[in-house]
Fold:
Amino acid sequence: MTLSLFDQFLSPVVCWIPLVAIAITLPWILFPSPTTRWLNNRSLTSQNWFLSQATSQIFSPINPPGHKWALLLSSLLIFLATMNTAGLLPYTFTPTSQLSINMGLAGALWMGVVILGMRTQPTHSLGHLLPEGAPALLTPILVIIETISLFIRPIALGVRLTANLTAGHLLIQLTSTATLAMLTIMPVTAIFTGILLFLLTLLEAAVALIQAYVFVLLLSLYLQENV
Amino acid sequence: MLSRLQAISVKVTDPFVSLSLVQASRSLQTSSQRLAPVPPLPDHGGKVRHGLIPEELFEFLYPKTGVTGPYMLGTGLIVYLLSKELYVINHETIYAICIGTIIVYGVKKYGATVAAFIDSINEEKVAKAQAAKDSHISFLTEAIENEKKEQWRVEGRGMLFDAKRNNVAMLLETNYRERQHMVTNEVKRRLDYQIALQHLNRRLQQEHMINWVEKNVISSITPQQEKESIAKCIADLKVLAKTTQAKAAA
Structure:
């Protein structure tokens, strides 16, 4: 069937059976739970190694009380990275290209860290609204600006991920449409566009992993401020 | 509702019913019934051809269609899907070719390296355990050798004690001899002293006697006697001189 450019962003349905739940729970299937073995097979070893490296990287600058968030943030990283990279395959639906999912994750987690900070150490959390070393005259303006930036964080988090993935997917679709259209008319230009598509795909692969990492990193930074 | 649950659970936990249920479904139970020992992992995964298609398909088709069977099946399938437009070539196809190239190239180029790296992680784990085991074994072997050495030392302890005993006896003997020597010397000194004292006494007595005799003799010599003796001496000397002259002339 002919696909329009935005068919890839529609919630997947097969014979009116929604498949979005399967799409979202895909990472759960790909990452098996720890086994009772001392030495595992290659895929499990690599997953465990990657996860331990990532967790130690993200949580080394955070105080010990924040280490309670290790499970949440590391599983979030795996979740986002898997969904982003799985979306690179053709004919797949990328749940993280939907604003609903990203805003849900970003808003809930951001609010969690802020409320945690406000409840456990309110003075310290509010102190972040005035950065150190600022001249005294600018205090009122700075507080307003910092408050606005505080409240913009969840929107920024969610929209950053959505925009990156959606834009990348759209660009890929456009470039491949152009390649296909020009293949019969101007093959040489089609080849150049094909090379562009190739490079774009490499970029998208990198962006998929980087955006997931950035999401989790920013959340860990917000956690670091508040814990 | 809870009472219904209770009734059902009672019915199922009736021993005869539950046992027969387990027996009946034993053929359907696939997981192992024991937790340990864990069955070993196979060294290699299932064999695949072209990275995607399991070898079992080729073996399954080989008796009927030979070597080219599965390939004909694949080609036929693809051609059928394309010709009937069950699969439409659209922009996603171009993209699929692109990402397929990237994935295949990536796996071919970096697959072995990544696999070696992952294997090295496992090897490190094994090596660490092996090193711990080896160090423990060497430590225990050393301990055994030390123990044997100590036992040998204990055997030699008797000789050590004998030597020490001999030493002590020699020291005592030497000491005794020294003291005896000292005693002898002291006694000799005292006796020598007594002898010297006696000699001194005798000498003093002799000298005193001589002096007394001389004194008395000298005091008893009268001047007359002295003249007579001198005249006699001179007469004697003259006689002597004559005899000597005579002897000399003869």
About this structure: Residues 19-226 of chain A form one domain. The longest strand of chain A covers residues 13-14.
